[in-house]
Amino acid sequence: MDDKHYDLVVIGSGPGGEKGAAQAAYFGKKVALIEKEQELGGAAANTGTLPSKTLRETSLYLSGFRQRGLYGMEVNFKNQVTARDFLYREKIVSQAERERIKTNIENHNIDLFKGSASFVDENTISIKPNNSKEILIHGDVILIATGSYPFRPPNIPFEHSGVYDSDTILKILKIPKSILVAGGGVIGCEYACMFAALGVEVTLVEGRETVLAFLDDEISGALAQAMTRIGVKLVLSSKIDNVKKEDKNFLINLDTGEYIKVENILAATGRSGSTSYLNLEGIGIETNSRGNISVNNHYQTKKSHIYAVGDVIGFPALASTSMEQARIAMVHAFDLKYKTSLAPILPYGIYTIPECSMAGETEMSLKEKNIDYVVGRANASSNARGQIIGDKDGFTKLLFDANDMRLLGVQIIGENASELVHIGLIGLMTFATADLFIQTCFNYPTLGEMYKYATYDALGAKQKKDEKRLKNIK
Fold first, then answer.
1. Each residue of 37-95: pLDDT tens digit?
2. What is the greatest pairwise CA distance in the chain?
3. Architecture in CATH for domain 5-150+272-334
């Protein structure tokens, strides 16, 4: 067989591309992986997931944020945090992840090609490396995992230095005195919190009435309050009309008539699928206005042998789901009799300060479905481990079916929320009832123990609801 003929050709080495390639190779398929950037790993390793989470930890460490007031004294590790301080750890973590991906590709005997990929026909891919001739390879199955890039709204002047998106912010030369963050989604809120922890004056502008509107109302409200406490000025129900450069600052005019003056601007206004260079229209695959590809439940495009996963297909656009989508797609493509469907309940982790995480239903979704439910809460301030670490405002919120006390949703805000949510996620996946947390013995002192006390609280709420119902019947 021709060396340039593969069972699978994967375009993109981010979480979806890497795991999809490895899944097929593990089962003996001949696989090629194409990456157009110099570094492996896509946005997850280089500009998004890992860098932003590393920067969060760096900002907390350098600012002494977690220690403030904890031991009855003020702590400030560094009077002036530099951009080099801020970005140093991020570079180490990203490099380690790139090395891990490279090793994984080598261990699976996957052929790696560097260059920009585009379709010549439905099975032939053209690869154009920098400063060398075009290569053509053929794949029986194609997996598109090209990820996304930051959307740049036309009313923000990116031609000026000092204006960033979520990719270019990693090249910031100095920590500014003030910054405006445009967008109250996940990326906007995460970076707003990071800069606020470093002592930067942060203004976040969001067109909706709340930040992170997909979260449970109580959690997004608690996060908004926490962000305000750490110094983020939230300007909600407002949009940017225009931006003017004024000496070393930017003057932002909002549609409400308000003016804001800041040193830097960070646009976090969503992302677009990286598809423009693939020549998809040449093979009959359409994309929407944001460059996203439509797929079916098996992640097949209109062409049954061409699959797409991850950010390039839109929501939920998480590294965790991208990996799973790719594995499922490859199982279907090669009939591997392995993992055939995505988990029905997905966790969401938002690395703000404090962290937020959720799985399953929210109060809003239960009301929309007319499901009778009860709520149980446990506060970190009443938890021994919460007291030890100084988490005064965090809480765990559990939603149960009011009839059989089956767990329906988990909402957490506070320290380690993105880790703690997995306890509840497993309960949701196994259709557990309140008995699971009542019968479980949790380590003491731990934040996980809040599950037990939130469940006791929910049982109390159920008892009151039942008593009220009986009283109304009488």
1. 888 888 766 776 777 788 888 777 766 666 655 555 455 544 566 767 777 777 888 88
2. 85
3. 3-Layer(bba) Sandwich (3.50)
How is residue 262 annotated by DSSP? E
Domains of the chain by residue range = 5-150+272-334, 163-269, 354-473
pLDDT in tens, 313-326: 998 888 889 999 99
Dist CA 303 CA 121 (whole Å): 11
Q: Just give the CATH number of 163-269.
A: 3.50.50.60
Coil, strand, or helix at residue 65? helix
390: left (phi over 0), alpha (psi -120 to 50) or beta: left
SS3 (DSSP) at 204: strand
Q: Are 39 and 50 in contact (CB under 8 A)?
A: no
The hierarchical CATH code for the domain 354-473 is 3.30.390.30
Three-state SS at 321: helix
Strands of the sheet with 201-206, listed across from one edge: 163-165, 264-267, 178-182, 201-206, 232-236
Q: What is the pTM of this model?
A: 0.88
Helix 83-107 to helix 15-26 angle, to the nearest 10 degrees?
20
Fold agreement between 5-150+272-334 and 163-269 = yes
